[in-house]
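Ops channel
N.P.: pipeline sanity check, posting one input/output pair.
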């Protein structure tokens, strides 16, 4: 979730500087437990892939043999907003198929549905009992939800009474997701650094209350991941999003080449001669250059130099072809996987068993420390 005020952006930048870690490959050879989750929103768009999934794959592939990598599809978190049960059931399997098709390897990473491991909600309840309400009210995501409700009702006095408790407490569940595995690193975008600090605060509060000598819970470090910001193809002042009712604003990971080409050809650019990378004055053109650079894993400024004497038609053609090259193989694999429900269920079951085995060790010690054993 995001909050668009400049003050909040500055706050996030300060938090990112305070809590970010060195890149994974430059740290010492201590064992790492890397954990992250994603909501079961079904089929993703290009911005989701470049902003999160591609980074997950990179972390997985560059991890050392003794590192523990866990990725979960967070069904409990999805319930904080109204869901159609049948659509949610399909979306969670589509998300699993997407992660597999785009490079998450269940032999190298633990991949599972959050709701298949009850340790998450058990630990969340324990954390609920030691987390002050004031900390949750300071969460910018909660403030943004309140602002949205107030704007929708045009009543500044509207308060928490119109929002469900899950929206208020889900950062505690997020902390339980992470701490159940004693995660040392959590790859996130800058808009999630506040939640990671809350996780650290909860871990510290538990340690001070129940284990002041040994400090049982590890305080996880934020691993700020590269975030290639992909903008809407029709309005580059906004990010690419599935919530926009116009499908031509985004590239879905399952789009065919014909669909990709049509959307890119109709993408907003400008009438300035020549191609340059200038996100402020030429946001549409710069967005296409950013997409092309991401597909090529290249520096956008260097990519732009190739097009300084060319027109938008050439750029759009190259972007379409680069996207097809990026998505063709995974798209085909996704379509194959989503038809193989038996395999998806087997992957999820095996992942959940591995996740439970890891988190049960944590929970046995937690129950002993709080007096429930």
């Amino acid at each position: 979730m995001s909050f668009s005020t400049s003050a909040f952006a500055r706050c996030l930048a300060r938090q990112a500087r305070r809590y970010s870690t060195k890149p994974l490959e430059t740290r010492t050879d201590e064992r790492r437990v890397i954990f992250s989750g994603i909501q079961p929103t079904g089929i993703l768009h290009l911005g989701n892939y470049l902003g999160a999934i591609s980074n997950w794959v990179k972390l997985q592939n560059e991890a050392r043999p003794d590192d523990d990598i866990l990725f979960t599809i967070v069904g409990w978190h999805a319930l904080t907003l109204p869901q159609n049960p049948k659509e949610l059931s399909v979306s969670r399997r589509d998300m699993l198929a997407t992660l597999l098709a785009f490079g998450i390897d269940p032999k190298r990473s633990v991949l599972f549905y959050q709701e298949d491991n009850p340790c998450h909600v058990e630990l969340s309840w324990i954390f609920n009992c030691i987390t002050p309400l004031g900390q949750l009210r300071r969460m910018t995501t909660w403030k943004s939800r309140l602002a949205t409700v107030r704007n929708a009702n045009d009543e500044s006095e509207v308060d928490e009474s119109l929002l469900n408790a899950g929206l208020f407490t889900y950062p505690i569940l997020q902390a339980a997701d992470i701490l159940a595995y004693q995660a040392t690193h959590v790859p996130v975008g800058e808009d999630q650094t506040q939640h990671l600090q809350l996780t650290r605060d909860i871990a510290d509060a538990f340690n001070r209350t129940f284990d002041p000598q040994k400090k049982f819970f590890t305080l996880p470090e934020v691993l700020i991941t590269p975030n290639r910001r992909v903008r809407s193809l029709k309005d580059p002042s906004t990010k690419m999003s599935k919530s926009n009712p116009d499908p031509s604003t985004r590239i879905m990971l399952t789009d065919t080449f014909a669909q990709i080409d049509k959307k890119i050809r109709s993408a907003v650019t400008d009438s300035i001669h020549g191609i340059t990378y200038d996100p402020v004055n030429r946001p549409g053109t710069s967005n296409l250059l950013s997409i092309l650079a991401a597909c090529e894993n290249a520096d956008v400024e260097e990519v732009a130099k190739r097009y300084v004497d060319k027109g938008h038609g050439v750029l759009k053609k190259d972007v379409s072809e680069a996207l097809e090259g990026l998505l063709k193989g995974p798209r085909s694999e996704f379509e194959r996987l989503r038809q193989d429900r038996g395999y998806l269920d087997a992957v999820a079951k095996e992942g959940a068993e591995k996740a439970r085995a890891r988190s049960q060790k944590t929970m046995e010690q937690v129950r002993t420390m709080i007096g429930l054993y």
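N.P.: looks fine end to end. Residues 1-27 have pLDDT under 50 and may be disordered.
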